């Protein structure tokens, strides 16, 4: 099985060709739009959609060339069908449908969150069911993954996502966007114990998260004056430690609710963080679980995870009609109650 994967739900145009036979990832290209959005200090949806439109054709041609195949060698085209910035999602879905129609291929609309959720299975065989900490710029959830298309949400954020906490923290400290990698770099030279920051929800029952108070506390500690390098590093280290403590505490609670699960998995952009990976590995060891996380390049948004989710769906005969409508919101667990807080995305 050979599948073309297209990811356009945020500010990365990404295309990959993935096979179910080794080597699985035949090509995996990510074109970041950082330069286009930098002047505005964040992602501008209309600029993102137009940039996807400008770059997608060329990127698909390059991904096929790098994989050494033409459209005729493919079995299906998978594209992120949501959730995400709707203009970008429409661009990717329309392109995938056009290729599928013109070349007589199956079309698969992939839930971006399912792309992350199944990404750990691309590089190694992680058996269902597993416990998943999904941490990205838009989402922060603990899920029991029962199988392809079968998810039970154990907890979610009631305000910001973990990646958002990194991004907003980095902006406050003048470290630029995306904030996660910048905070991680600065934290390496910092003293996490110098500034005390809150750990929202820590010690409470349940698996929900909250991060917005952390941003306010960080702003307070940072004060209004100019920060020197040492202050900045110490604050970054403090923030990273606080976010990791919250994620570990909530995941520990989720483990107690996850009978029958043998593996703890993390995925999504924040899962690229080395401190978090090490702490989750230690937590898994303590609980007698296996630990799995995709390689860092497959944690942040990419086309390979979309193509892989396409393969997983194709194996179950789960394809979509060309009448599929892009979905700005698309929860993995439709039975989970909506989260409480304002600004919550799923
Ligand atoms: O999965 P992703 O690429 O996009 C979404 O689906 O949102 O996640 C992006 C998020 C951003 O908030 C970014 O700051 C964060 O992942 N991130 C990190 C790291 N690399 C990316 N956070 C912490 N440490 C990192 N190394
Ligand atoms: Zn993502």
Please, how many helices?
12
Q: How many beta strands in the DSSP annotation?
A: 10
Provide the low-confidence segments as ranges: none
The description of the largest β-sheet is: 5 strands, mixed
Give the distinct bound molecules: 5'-O-[(R)-(carboxyoxy)(hydroxy)phosphoryl]adenosine, zinc ion
Mean pLDDT across the residues is: 96
The geometry reads as globular
Indicate the proportion of strand residues: 15-25%
Helix content: 40-55%
Would you mind describing this structure in some detail?
The protein is α/β, with parallel strands linked by helices. Helix content is 42%, strand content 18%. The strands form two sheets. It has a five-stranded mixed beta sheet with strand order 3-2-1-4-5, sandwiched between helices. β7 (140-147) and β8 (150-156) form a beta hairpin. α6 crosses α7, α6 packs parallel to α8 (212-222) and α6 (162-172) packs antiparallel against α9 (229-256). The radius of gyration is 20 Å and the shape is globular. It starts with a strand and ends in a 31-residue tail after the last helix. The model has no long low-confidence stretch (mean pLDDT 96). Zinc ion binds next to α4.
